[in-house]
Amino acid sequence: MRAMIKFEYCKPISAKAVPTGLDWIHEVKYDGYRGRVARDGRNVKLLSKSGLDWTWRFPFIVETALKMRQTRFIIDGEICVLNVQGISDFDALHSNRHNEKAQLYAFDLVALDGDDLRDMPLFERKARLGKLLKGRPKGIFVAPHEAGEIGPGLFEAACRMGLEGLVSKHRERRYRPRTCDWIKVKNRKHPAFSRVMDTFG
């Protein structure tokens, strides 16, 4: 089925500074598990970055996908559990004790109505994603983003709020892993930064 196309994820590359310029779109980085939700009619799959079937594990996301009016799509995003402030809580997600509360922070639309959208520029994919998720039930929410030279200031604000950081993406790029131009800049005081240092340091 075309709605269940296989694809390689676009992955952000670590950097020390947020890019500036009018061609960049900036998103808050949520702390969770990368995943994609794919629906083809009444068939919904939620897959991890490594291809594990997590449909059984995060029922709220699957139920939300089934309630949406469109019946064929693939959404790329981050599976996360939000605390009372609306901030992603990795420890709560990783504990496996809050699986029924996990939601999908959706930031890209890979396919819609059986059409592969990966050759569209990012800003067009985001426009279609926003339309797809407009008025959607809770469980899948669209990633808010800001465009242009606001990036460095937005990163400073994210750090003050205790968020993980930012992911900046070139608005014109296609969904191609080697040329997508996704850049992540992490808040060094966030627990996620310590986890990475413990793993690779």
- The CATH homologous superfamily of the largest domain corresponds to DNA ligase/mRNA capping enzyme
Shape from CA axes? globular
Share of helix among residues? 10-25%
Separation of termini? Answer: 43 Å
The share of residues in extended strands comes to 25-35%
Summarize this, please?
With 201 residues, the chain is an alpha+beta fold. The protein is 23% helix and 29% strand.
What brief labels describe this structure?
disordered C terminus, alpha+beta, single chain, 5-stranded mixed beta sheet, Dna Ligase, domain 1, 2 domains, 201 residues, D-amino Acid Aminotransferase, Chain A, domain 1, 29% strand, 5 helices, 11 strands, 6-stranded mixed beta sheet
Could you characterize the architecture of this molecule?
This protein has helices spanning about 60-65, 90-95, 120-135, 150-160, 190-200; strands spanning about 15, 25-30, 35-40, 45-50, 70-80, 105-110, 115, 140, 145, 165-170, 180-185. By secondary structure, it is an alpha+beta fold. The protein folds into 2 domains: about 10-30 and about 145-200, Dna Ligase, domain 1 (2-Layer Sandwich), CATH 3.30.1490; about 30-140, DNA ligase/mRNA capping enzyme (D-amino Acid Aminotransferase, Chain A, domain 1, 2-Layer Sandwich). The strands form 2 sheets. Strands 3, 4, 5, 6, 7 and 8 form a 6-stranded mixed sheet that branches. The longest helix has 12 residues, at about 120-135. It is globular. The N and C termini lie far apart (about 45 Å).
